[in-house]
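Question: Now follow the chain.
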Amino acid sequence: MSSSAASPRVIAVVVAYNRRDLLVEVLEALAAQRHPLARVVVVDNASTDDSAQVALAAGSLVDLVSLPRNTGGAGGFAAGMAVALDRHEPDWLWLMDDDTVPTPDALAALLAAVDGTDVVAAGSRVIWTDGSEHPMNTPRAKPFVSKAERVAAARRGAVAIRSTSFVSMLVRADVVREVGLPIADYFIWNDDFEYSTRVLRGRRGLHVPASVVVHKTKVLGSTDADPGPRFYYEVRNKLWMFRRSQSLSAFEKALYGASSVRRWIRTFVRSSDRAVLRDGWRRGYRDGTRTRPRPNASSLAGLGPASASVEAVEQA
């Protein structure tokens, strides 16, 4: 890696779409980190507000990547991570949405937890605006973790995990180069589940409660809250993941697949518009079983310099 272990070079990647006021907060919070960031790559996903201007106004810390079309959270992170790797020589990438406001010590706490270890990814404690735990971003503890790994994590005030979310995920840059980028065709939902489990398959990750970020969603909702038409992406992407991805073992696919079915049933039972969910299920099942995600070079083509970065990183 390019920097010494004592002072790792961290590049934040923020995906932005039509939340300019929150983006202002996020960029101010990133500039105020106790462990300073080397750069912040802001991916503007074809916003129709002035998010791009907000990023430009933040000064030289920000590298703005303006995309000509909305590629969703999955495409935004894939493009932003590729640009960060291609232009900025990071040791670590720190990933978050434009409604994720880190506390001043959030990055320092993540780095302290991974310092001197073989940990390749770490996630923050995610709270809502009222200080309560945000159920949307609960990490999955590592099942059947060894005593040695559990004790090593506890000594750092952390928990061994099998997955984490893009709402404050720190990931080692050399591992990103090894496993590749998030799958852009997921667009939204389960892109971070697939990616974090891919990164952590056979490797170690931590949940770090001392690192705190505020996820400023409009409501405090969990993963089984009624998603409306977006249920399509939940179904399609889970089927893509369980059928196509190598991020999980066969046993894990059975375990998490059963959990997903139970959550879908709860979502359907609680829904006020089951016809929408039935339509999402039908289309999601069709596309999840009959299609597969395209390579990022295809799904992220035509984005100018960002496309070149994606191709350069994935070819390498």
